[in-house]
Amino acid sequence: MTEKERMVCGELYFAYDEELKRDRQRARRLTRLFNGTTEEELAYRTELLKELFQSTGEQIFIEPPFRCDYGSHIRIGDNFYANYDCIILDVCDVTIGDHVFFGPRVGVYTAAHPIDAGVRNAILEYGRPITIGNSVWVGADVVINPGVTVGNNVVIGSGSVVTKDIPDNVIAAGNPCRVLRPITVEDRDYWEKRRREYMEN
Fold first, then answer.
1. Are 144 and 150 in contact (CB under 8 A)?
2. Domain total for the chain?
3. pLDDT at 172
4. 116-141: buried (b, 16+ CB within 10 Å) or exposed (e) per residue?
């Protein structure tokens, strides 16, 4: 296996492999161009993101600055929004569903390092994939750790550190992040009422 194949499969790999260096340089170039755009260049921003990522939906909007390791391991669904200072370390696959919104300074980190110092000092790393479902709101300053799956219709509270999977249809928060309560029919009814009031005014 190549170092890249080992990396994507979640095996130990050597990060300073020449192929991986070239892939990172590509991502650095595209993110540098993206982060240097102005507010008048929205179409160009989208073009750069579609080149950077493995795949995207039709609507994708990320506020600069944005950083990632490779970009080519990130798949994003339709109607995605990320606020300022988003970082995605995609040494393994990152899969993000439709209608997902990130607050500022969200970090999605597939990268991990061995606990043993001797192996870690040999510059060996590994990663675990991250999956985020549909209709998810991730609050400001949230960290999503390697190997986590966040379900559909989930709200993650600001400042949370997500270390374990989060099921569908819940509000979760904390460090470590834990489920606070389910999202209920009463929640839906309340917010639908608020929406109708908005539309009537």
1. yes
2. 1
3. 98
4. eeeeeeeebbbbbbbbbbbbbbbbbb
Residue positions annotated with a catalytic role: 113
Report how far residue 9's alpha carbon sits from residue 101's, in angstroms, rounded to the nearest whole number: 27
What is the distance between the alpha carbons of residues 169 and 171, in angstroms, rounded to a whole number? 7
**Residue 103 token pair:** 């607050």
Would the pTM count as exceeding 0.85? yes
Closest CA to 140 of 110, 100, 102, 178: 102
Contacts of residue 49, defined as CB under 8 A and 6 or more positions apart, other chains included, come to 34, 56, 60, 62
Q: How far apart are CA 160 and CA 176, in angstroms?
A: 7
CATH number at residue 36: 2.160.10.10
Q: Which amino acid is at 64?
A: P
Paired strand residues for 149 = 131
pLDDT digits (tens, 9 = 90+) for 21-37: 999 999 999 999 999 99
